[in-house]
Amino acid sequence: MKDDNLLLSMCLVFAPLSLMAIGGGSSILGQLQYSVVDSQQWLTNKAFMDMFAISRVAPGPGTLIVTLIGWHLAGWLGAVLSTIAIFAPSSLLVVAIAYVWHRHPDAAWQKALIYGLAPLAAGLVLSSVHALLQQARGGWIAWCVAILVAGAAQTVRLGPLALMGLGAILFCALLAVAG
């Protein structure tokens, strides 16, 4: 069995991130990367990016990257504890908020909460994108493709998989031309 301090440290890092994941797992990727690479030094940037890539192609929520990190650090017990740490706090918070939400329908604070959290979620997602693009090996090409795909997502009626495929093709084409 791995060091108990490591298991506790993983829970103490991942549980607060669970409560920050407003807008989904993408919103915490920047902080997650900082926590596991820079602060705790559990992973290298390359290992984090590899786990990020695996978590993107695997079915399920994007926060399953935490399960991969836990597994890498402490085996099956690390995978289970890190998964509980990333999902339990936010799940309990949602249950509590849903209970209060339905007891007070059409309250003014509900609209304030909805309109106030939307820009917060967008900002967290954008900061995560920035942090990931900083570590991507694609350099300026990755930035250009990301901006073009984001613009296309707002204007073209294509699904996310088609946009991802087109973005990959565009990235490879630009890399071939530049390289």
From TrEMBL:
<feature type="transmembrane region" description="Helical">
    <location>
        <begin position="161"/>
        <end position="178"/>
    </location>
</feature>
<protein>
    <submittedName>
        <fullName>Chromate transporter</fullName>
    </submittedName>
</protein>
<keyword id="KW-1003">Cell membrane</keyword>
<keyword id="KW-1133">Transmembrane helix</keyword>
<feature type="transmembrane region" description="Helical">
    <location>
        <begin position="51"/>
        <end position="73"/>
    </location>
</feature>
<dbReference type="InterPro" id="IPR003370">
    <property type="entry name" value="Chromate_transpt"/>
</dbReference>
<keyword id="KW-0472">Membrane</keyword>
<feature type="transmembrane region" description="Helical">
    <location>
        <begin position="79"/>
        <end position="101"/>
    </location>
</feature>
<comment type="similarity">
    <text>Belongs to the chromate ion transporter (CHR) (TC 2.A.51) family.</text>
</comment>
<feature type="transmembrane region" description="Helical">
    <location>
        <begin position="6"/>
        <end position="30"/>
    </location>
</feature>
<keyword id="KW-0812">Transmembrane</keyword>
<dbReference type="Pfam" id="PF02417">
    <property type="entry name" value="Chromate_transp"/>
</dbReference>
<dbReference type="InterPro" id="IPR052518">
    <property type="entry name" value="CHR_Transporter"/>
</dbReference>
<feature type="transmembrane region" description="Helical">
    <location>
        <begin position="113"/>
        <end position="133"/>
    </location>
</feature>
<feature type="transmembrane region" description="Helical">
    <location>
        <begin position="139"/>
        <end position="156"/>
    </location>
</feature>
